[in-house]
Amino acid sequence: MLVAYGPDQHTVIAGETPFSQLQQWSRNHQLHCPNCRGVVHIRGGAEKRTQVHFAHQKGECEWSTEAESIRHAQGKLVLAQWLRQQYPHAAISLEKRLPEPNRIADVFLEHANGQQWAIEFQCAPLDIEEWKMRHHAYRKAGIIDSWIIGNNRREKQEAFIEALLATNRELLFLDPLVSPPRIWLRWPITRQQAMERQQLPATERAAQSQNATMDGWVGRSGYGMTILGTLAEIQLDTQARLIHPTRVALEQRSTLLQAMSAATALDEQQLVTYLQPAINNTALRLFVIPLLHAYQLDPELARRYNYGRGLPGQPVRPGDQQRIEKACIWLRSLVRHGYTLEKLQLLTREFPFAGPYAAFAGYAEILLALAAQR
């Protein structure tokens, strides 16, 4: 255990109190179990290369967790510190004994408004019925339970992990033994979202892959996303749900793309919002927005001109010819701003092929191909 009562009956946390002081109290039998009030002794330390902790004489306490791993002990300390940084005004306790639901929470947090969270760091296998019992007991007591899994179980296919995923729609695996603590955040995505990701421009997909990858899922849940990062990047919202900026950006992007796919007409702001991560404001102002306005005036111009050149009995209209030539002159003129035709072609690859925006992307490709021929 990591928590004991000192000689003044105040809480003492292993690792946060000078080791020499803990040794003195231990020799004087002044350290006590917070559960059974029996005497405990200091164990571990740098010389023994193990986590500093408190221990009973073997078999003394039914609440004892003497067999916990170094990963589990270090994880509780790491998580407590992580929560203190996020919620400096909350009361945060390690190994808190809760009469209801008759549990010892690995880390317990009580907000000033009375809301209570139990953070459980699970490194050992757990029977699914046992997990359900603990989960329902916490919720019945009005406590939000949040489960974080040790990285040693990251590749395991276990029923309780799949149940946790089905309940919370997210999983966080933690390696507390490295500095900074490393995390793997996983959450399920639909088949449609997986297909949308595959249809993203190659440059955007490559940029996203630096932080997030699409992979197979634990068990039978289908597609999933995984973010590899550090614990400091994760925040908890008011319901103890996990927030990571990359995940937020990906989900916002997916929502935007779905809206664009279902749209009945082009929306300039929607297109700009979609393109801004990949195209800077100068390119948007000089190239994308003027091109969009031209397209909205006559969406069929490029197709009508291009097809007319190759159809017998349907010569190109003089007005179309003049407008295409004017458009090509404008496109070539952008080189003075640093935008060659080749660079503009790369920019058009970022245009979404979704709903009515796919036709606009085709329009841009035709015009640039025509400009390159002149």
UniProtKB/TrEMBL annotation:
InterPro entries named among the record's database cross-references: CoiA-like_N, CoiA_nuc
Pfam family, one: CoiA_nuc
Domain Competence protein CoiA nuclease-like residues, every copy: 68-209
Domain named Competence protein CoiA-like N-terminal: residues: 20-62
Protein name, as recorded: Competence protein CoiA
Organism of derivation: Dictyobacter formicarum
